[in-house]
Amino acid sequence: GLSRRLSAIADLVPPGARVADIGSDHALLPAWLVSAGKSPCAVAGEVRDGPLKASAARIEADGLADRVAVRKGDGLAVVAPGEVDCVVIAGMGGALIASILEAGAAAGKLEGVRTLVLQPNVGEDLVRRWLLDKGWYLAVERIVEEDGRWYEILAAQRLPDADGLNAALYDASFLKLDRPAERKKELLLRMGPWLLRQPDERLAGKWRSELEKLAFISRQIERSDSPDAARRRQEVLEEIKLIGEVMACLQ
Ligand code: SAM
Q1: Per the domain annotation, does 169 fall within a domain?
Q2: Can you tell me the ipTM of this complex?
Q3: Of 13, 131, 153, 226, which is least packed with CB atoms within 10 Å of its CB?
Q4: Nearest-5° angle of CA 54, CA 71, CA 38?
Q5: Of the residues 164, 191, 212, the one at which a domain ends
């Protein structure tokens, strides 16, 4: 079976969707989707030769080669416009995910794509920002824990009224924080508009772990003698305070 993270990603793929998994590495996800009958066919895209060859050999051995195409290429270059209904990009930084989507959109590769399932390892705000700017409705957000790490999984849909739905979703007035509306919207982009509306143990766990990282960074800065150390440390402390306030106001 799939790991907890990959299985949460697979859950958000609409049944029956033809899928492209970009940066597929081992191609575990497309192999599972097709074997389980959730997807009729899939494309596994990968830039590196090693994983590409290993995946192709496994797909062949599993008898899935007629339904899973393993292709070498950068981002969405591996799919033709209209070829898939759903694109998955998982296990990379948010900046890279946004740049793959941006280049793919410019090349028409998102035409006909109805669903994006994205799992940034860091920089989730950059992915949410891209979706919002490009008129993709952020429909679902999940957090999963695997091996002591927290992962956010975002699913976005192309809907006629995406902008209106997003406007309501990113209305931050539910956050009882004494901060300007613009600042609160940034917090929604950073921490997730659905995740903050449905706070649970996983959200608390993820942000406890982020606060620990920030505290560590602040101690590192304290020990450095770079000229802007004081300013940088102040920024980190501000951030710790802000995140603490958000978590407290959700109680
Ligand atoms: N998606 C899998 C998962 O979530 O388990 C694998 C994640 S792995 C950490 C990231 C993969 O993305 C690597 O195999 C890397 O080679 C690939 N990758 C990075 N940039 C890429 C790009 N521009 N186009 C296609 N693949 C890329």
Answers
A1: no
A2: 0.99
A3: 226
A4: 85
A5: 164
